[in-house]
Amino acid sequence: MVSAAPAPARPGPPGRPAGDVTVEAAPGVWVAWARTAAVSEHPADLADVRGRPRWRRRQSLAARGLLRALLAEVCPGTEGVALSADVRGRPALQGLPALGVSLSHDGPSGTSGDLGGDLVAAAVAPGRRVGVDVQLPPGPDVPAGLVRRCLRERAGELSSLPAGRRALEFAWVWTVQEACVKADGTGIAGRPWSLDIPVRPGTGTLGDLTWIALRHLSVHPVSCAFGDLRAR
């Protein structure tokens, strides 16, 4: 267990949309999240999402827009650099492999152009690997099989909670699991559901990663994970 504690959350700078929150989760690890965000108009971002369903384009461009706003604040001059992704989907700024970045979005699928039901997040960590994840609770309750798969011997503790609370705490666990595999660069191949994360997660370590659930700063499940760069 670690003692890392995020700095107090603060509203984003005036150029950011209302509802955005930015926090330095650990020294040099910045996380921002929002229920509304200006979509990216970067040509490379628009090209990357071409052909996707409208709702997925909306979410992806909102997350990228938030990332570029965060880069402008904490790493000025990098916000215009094109994003690329490796074979497992891990994002990186082209030509800047040591500048860790991560994106996340969640929300309803559908054809609506309204971002109001979506939640997006971004993380920036110079000189580190970083992962961020946001989740909306999966409905009023969580299927028992999903709880067992993701929490195994801890499933009973989660199942003892009232249904609404159970769904929320499950979402918190899943954000930590997802943030860790994103920071590790393994994505879904890293089997996030197999990672041992406690119910009501706070902060902790997993291998060479540190993870933080930002539960005292956000009503929506948002978590990040980070670690030192690995030699290539």
From TrEMBL:
GO annotation terms (biological process): lysine biosynthetic process via aminoadipic acid
Gene Ontology CC, one term: cytosol
Keywords for this protein: Transferase
Signal sequence, start to end: none
Residue span, 4'-phosphopantetheinyl transferase domain: 129-190
Alphabetical list of InterPro entries matching this protein: 4-PPantetheinyl_Trfase_dom (IPR008278), 4-PPantetheinyl_Trfase_dom_sf (IPR037143), P-Pant_transferase_sf (IPR050559)
DNA-binding in keyword set: no
Region described as Disordered: spans on this chain: 1-20
Similarity comment: Belongs to the P-Pant transferase superfamily. Gsp/Sfp/HetI/AcpT family.
One of the record's GO molecular function terms: magnesium ion binding
Organism name: Streptomyces collinus (strain DSM 40733 / Tue 365)
Top-level taxon of origin: Bacteria
Protein name, UniProt field: 4'-phosphopantetheinyl transferase
